[in-house]
Specification:
This protein is mostly loops and 56 residues long. The chain contains one helix and no strands. Residues 1-48 form the PPIase cyclophilin-type domain.
Length: 56
C-alpha cells in the first residue's frame, strides 16, 4: 500500500517492483508475486488503470 509520512495515510495505490526493495521492508504490505504474465507488468505505465483482475 502506498502512503505518505502522515499516520493512517495508506490509499489504494500499489506498485509492481522489478527487483529487491529492502528499504520497503516492514513499512509496506506485500500483496503478491507475479508468477506468469510478467510481460504485461513490464508494459504498465503511470496512470494505467486495472479494470479487472483474477487472483487464484
Amino acid at each position: 500500500m502506498a502512503r505518505s509520512a502522515a499516520p493512517d495515510s495508506a490509499s489504494s495505490q500499489f506498485y509492481f517492483t522489478l527487483g529487491s526493495t529492502p528499504h520497503l521492508d516492514m513499512n509496506y504490505a506485500v500483496f503478491g508475486k507475479t508468477i506468469s504474465g510478467v510481460e504485461n507488468v513490464l508494459q504498465l505505465r503511470e496512470g494505467d488503470r486495472i479494470d479487472s483482475i483474477t487472483i487464484s
